Amino acid sequence: MSEEYKREHVFGIDYGTSDFKYGPITLGEIPEVVENRGYFVDRESLMSRLMDIRREVIVGKELPLFLESRKSLAERMVYPMRNGVIEKDDLRAWRVVEELTRYALESFAPRDEEFDGFYLVASVSMVAPRYMYEKLFEIFKRMNEERTLVKAATIIPQPLAVAIAHKIPTCVVVESGHGNSQICPISMYPIRDAVLALNRGGCSANTLMAEILKDAGYGDLAKEESLVRRVKEELGLLPRDLDPAIDYAKANPEKVRGRLKIPGTRIVIDLGEHSWTRFLVGEYVFNPNHEIFQSYFTRGMPKPSDIKIGDTFFYGMMDMAEAIIESVEKCPIELQPHLYSKILLSGGNFGWRAPEDLKEVAVTSDLKLSSMLREKGIEDVEVRITEEPRFSVWRGCIVYGYAVPIDYEWNWNRMEGWLYLA
Amino acid sequence: MLRRFKPEDLVAAIYEEEGFYEVERREEGILGASSRIVLSDGRRELAVNILDEDTLMVHGAIHDALLQAEKLRERYSGVAIAIPRRFRRAVDDGVLSMHGLGLIVYDMMGAEEVVPPRFSERVEVVKSSNTAIEEKAVSIEEIVRIRSDIGRILRMLEELEARLDRLERAQRSLEIRVNRIEQRSSRVEVRVRETPRIEERVKPSSKKLPSYLVDNPWIDILSRRE
Question: What are the residues of chain A with a beta carbon less than 8 Å away from any beta carbon of chain B?
């Protein structure tokens, strides 16, 4: 098998928390995307009999065609990668992962005789424990039961893929998703010993947004998770500095007033005199230690706690800049300035907008983090928000598969290389 | 499914520890027994007549079995009978012991030697009385030797197999290294050639390489992984 064959048959898979991105190198810039979920069919149901469904799990684009009642949706729909980590014995989640993988590979596997399997590069969360790698390799091996779909496979952490897609060999990747945030320094290789994780992500900001909605008189709407998320994305702001921003909002209530009409409904949300709280939502993700958040904690809002998932310890209350410093300081001193000079922010939790008329007090994530780091004495900082964060992991997978030589075999110590399966 | 052991296997197992192995098994045409196994340690032969429950239900079966067993003493160094444990009381240990016959009882849990058989110096007797049996004794010795030869050959085969594996691995690794050296020598040339190929495959409508592959320093870094 030649390098030439490999380069033409690289296949990338990004097991993201909400979306599953996949496709071969031949797709170019944009991969195929389906939701990272699977629906377990009730074989006894009228629907499955009518449609003659023989599969146990439905994944992919046709999934909505098989859905039944809302009640069964909750019982039968499985989102396997909610926190980036799948429990070892979560059989249903692993079943979904296997079906999605098969779905992805079979969608693109050529029928010609020359095809001898893809060189598959899969990407998982930086905090994925070793057993997840083992389970995934087992799944990839099973892909070859009927015909050879996977010649060789490898698994890389998502931050490495992000750094590769952005063409930066030495940097710190901060990935902030739905459930948590991970900080990973990279210098040609991911520096695994320096990885640090926070038990805060987009869902933490959603929780605070729900509390704010309750205080503003929208307690009924605060129960709708998707609506809360939408309000957060539309009305939430990231303050340059929280106290002056609150003062500004109180002095200029009309300028900061948060009002949102939900399209297609009669719902209008107006935060009114509570509009200053818009700044709390963004601040909470970056630094939940401000005294103002204490009042929410004492009223019952869960405080982000320190927890251990898999092999990784997730800090609850550590601020984002402190976490980056702690992570970088685990790396060699000589390397530290290079790492601070390229910090990449990836993931939907960094998408805070700074409206033109509020530029004085509201900022984007890169500016916020730069200023937080400078306050802590770190100079020569350059923070960048990734472009097209949705596809960058998949692109990194394609570059990795394209470049890594075919004889660089998988090694469990360095967690890199090709594992030959056919 | 669990395998249920036959009485012959259970009986043979109790003598395995003493160095006996099975050299003959007959399950039909045995007078006074339902089956017979012959065990040997290379020097002595032990014949065991095995009686199952059906055989013992026939009136006088136990006496017939003992008489037939007694006759076997001329041909084998030792003789024993094996009966199901629940018929244990039908046989007197003392009588058997006096005649040098062994007694084994068995049930589905295993077999137990109740009276050990008395071994005679059969080889010498055989030599003087029966040439045919002498030949058989020789052939048993031969069997022992052949078995040990087969064991040695199997070990040699295993070693050869392992060496072949190592050689195949080494050959594969060498092939890969040669390929890489060839590619390295023409790396610049290869890249220039490859770019349009990917371009062609990427998207028929697009004339450009994917942006993430163009001028990406990681390609050089990753291609040096070894």
Answer: 2-4, 7-8, 25-29, 163-165, 167, 169, 188, 395-396, 398-400, 402-408, 416-417
φ, ψ of residue A265 to 5 degrees: the values are: -130, 175
Nearest to B226 among A7, A167, A405 (CB): A405
Which segment of A27-41, A129-143, A200-214, B190-204 scores lowest on mean pLDDT? B190-204
B124 touches chain A (CB under 8 A): no
What is the C-alpha to C-alpha distance for residues B66 and A252, in angstroms, rounded to an integer? 116
More confident residue, B200 or A147: A147
What is the rounded average pLDDT for all residues in chain A?
89
A277 shares a domain with A377: yes
A270-273 contacts at long range (C-beta below 8 A, 24 or more positions apart): A270/A216, A271/A212, A271/A216, A271/A235, A272/A216
User: Which residues of chain A does B176 touch, with a Cβ-Cβ cutoff of 8 Å?
Assistant: 406-407
Q: Report pLDDT digits (tens) over A176-195.
A: 887 789 999 999 989 988 99
Q: What is the CATH number of the domain that holds A342?
A: 3.30.420.570
Q: What is the pLDDT of residue B195?
A: 37
Q: What is the pLDDT of residues A305-358, one digit of tens each?
A: 888 876 778 899 999 999 999 999 999 999 999 999 999 998 888 989 899 999
> Mind telling me how many Å the CA of B163 is from chain A's nearest CA?
22
Nearest to B212 by CA among A130, A295, A165: A165
State how far the Cα of A3 lies from the Cα of A152, in Å rounded to an integer.
Answer: 12
A253 and A330 together in one domain = yes
Asked if B219 and A402 come within 8 Å (Cβ–Cβ), the reply is: yes
Whether A213 and A330 have beta carbons less than 8 Å apart is answered as no
Q: What is the mean pLDDT of residues B137-143?
A: 72
What is the residue range of A214's domain? 197-385
Say if residue A381 is in the same domain as residue A412: no
- Name the one residue in this structure whose structure tokens are 């390799």: A137
Which residues from chain B sit within 8 angstroms of residue A403, using beta carbons?
218-223
Q: Say whether both A375 and A398 belong to one domain.
A: no
Q: Indicate yes or no: CB of B221 within 8 angstroms of CB of A188.
A: yes
How far B159 CA lies from chain A's nearest CA (Å)? 26
User: Does the distance separating the beta carbons of A407 and B223 come in below 8 Å?
Assistant: no
Work out how many domains chain B is built from and give that number.
2
CB contact at 8 A, A340 and A328: yes
Co-location of B12 and B94 in the same domain: yes
Mean pLDDT of A4-24: 91
Q: Which residues on chain A are in Cβ contact (under 8 Å) with B222?
A: 164, 399-400, 403-404
Residues 6+ positions from A326 with CB-CB distance below 8 Å:
A196, A318
Q: Are residues B108 and B142 in the same domain?
A: no
Structural domain of residue B71, as residue ranges?
Answer: 7-122
Distance separating alpha carbons of residues B37 and B93, to the nearest angstrom: 21
State how many domains chain A has.
2
Residues of B whose CB is below 8 A from A190: none
Domain containing residue B54: CATH number = 3.40.1350
A408 vs B201, B216, B225: nearest CB: B225
Q: Are residues A257 and A145 in the same domain?
A: no
DSSP structure string for A186-219: EESEE-GGG-EEES-SHHHHHHHHHHHHHHTT-T
Q: How confident is the model at residue B204 (pLDDT cuts 50, 70, 90)?
A: very low
Partner-chain contact B173 A407, CB within 8 Å: yes
* pTM score of the predicted model: 0.64
Considering the domain architecture, whether residues B28 and B108 belong to the same structural domain is answered as yes
